[in-house]
Amino acid sequence: MEDELLSDDAGLFEHYRFLVDPGQEAMRIDKWLMHRLQNASRTKIQAAADAGCVQVNSKIVKSNYRIKPGDEIRIMLPEPPRDKEVYPENIPLDIVYEDDHLLVVNKVAGMVVHPGYNNFSGTLVNALVYHVGQLPQKDESHRPGLVHRIDKDTSGLLVVGKTPFALSHLGNQFYNHNIHRRYLALVWGDFENPSGTIRGYLARDPADRRRSKHFENEEDGKLAITHYEVVEHFYFTSLVACQLETGRTHQIRAHMASQGHPLFSDEMYGGREIRKGSALPKFKPFIENAFEMMPRQALHAAELGFIHPVTGEQMMFKAALPEDFDKLLEKIRRYVS
């Protein structure tokens, strides 16, 4: 049989529950869940189904089950769910703008945006809950107020919704690609074209599930579009402005690496290796010292623009480069001059 009734003594605990929309077309359940479970690859979902951890209408199903409107989907795991309460913590925040509906924060590098595996405290969300109090959330993701996120070791601007309406309105702007997001990245090498667009499909890298990988086939991932422009060239590195049309996990890092230009000091994507440079004996120590100066990927969310959910005003914010990034650029400028 394709499915069977899950016995009461299976020893599994419910972690997620979804109700399929009335207008949903038939689709394999592993593909459907891939777009609804954070940090869950299709392979991982298939393994969970093989282990009897995926239920539809209280029956175990395989990964090739095709969902139907009204199906109740439950993810059952052997461990009980962790306490997902987000506790307020008095952590300093660099708040660029705030009113009754939203706030814009300039996140420091090294701060995780929301609680998750191995990071259940000390996050931006913990600090926001302390500063604001209760924040709305769109779903059961336990990420109150968040419309988008940036990586732990990326610095820069984030907008946070303080009311359900603001959160929904801002979320729709992101969904419709109406948000202006401009990042500054220091990457290895020089570009053949001073500006261009990287378009492809991003998904988890089968060789390393922590990374994203660029694919050409739409069946392999989610559409990702990055527009870039070289701002300054240093022979062995380039300062590049990247404007996001979509917002996928590690989008800029993965896209730049796919073009042979990993971000400077980005160990996960090969950026802590010397990719181009001089044969002079002083060059290697210079780069190693630069890595010590900035032991993270050289990426900063420099500009953020959106329409205010209530006033309809076009809002635009800019954040100067943080000290480590700014000093790194000055060091490189002095070296190449």
Kindly, what is the distance between the CA atoms of the first and last residues, rounded to a whole number of angstroms?
72 Å
Biggest sheet architecture: 10 strands, mixed
Poorly predicted parts: 1-9
Task: Supply the helix-strand structural class.
Answer: alpha+beta
> What general form does the structure show?
globular
Topology of this protein?
Blueprint: E1 4-5, E2 13-19, E3 27-28, H1 29-34, H2 42-50, E4 54-56, E5 59-60, E6 66-67, E7 72-77, E8 95-98, E9 102-107, H3 124-132, E10 155-161, H4 164-175, E11 180-188, E12 195-205, E13 208-215, E14 222-233, E15 237-244, H5 251-258, H6 283-293, E16 299-307, E17 314-318, H7 323-336
Parallel strand pairs: 10-16
Antiparallel strand pairs: 1-5, 2-7, 3-6, 4-5, 4-7, 8-9, 9-10, 11-15, 11-16, 12-13, 12-14, 14-15, 16-17
Structure write-up:
The chain is α+β, with helices and mostly antiparallel strands and 337 residues long. It has three domains: 4-77, Roll (Structural Genomics Hypothetical 15.5 Kd Protein In mrcA-pckA Intergenic Region, Chain A), CATH 3.10.290; 95-175, Pseudouridine synthase, CATH 3.30.2350; 181-336, Pseudouridine synthase (2-Layer Sandwich), CATH 3.30.2350.10. 20% of the residues lie in helices and 31% in strands. The protein is built from seven helices and 17 strands. The strands form three sheets. Strands 8, 9, 10, 11, 12, 13, 14, 15, 16 and 17 form a ten-stranded mixed sheet that branches. A five-stranded antiparallel sheet has the order 1-5-4-7-2. It has a two-stranded antiparallel sheet with strand order 3-6. A hairpin with a 3-residue loop joins strand 14 (222-233) and strand 15 (237-244). It is globular.
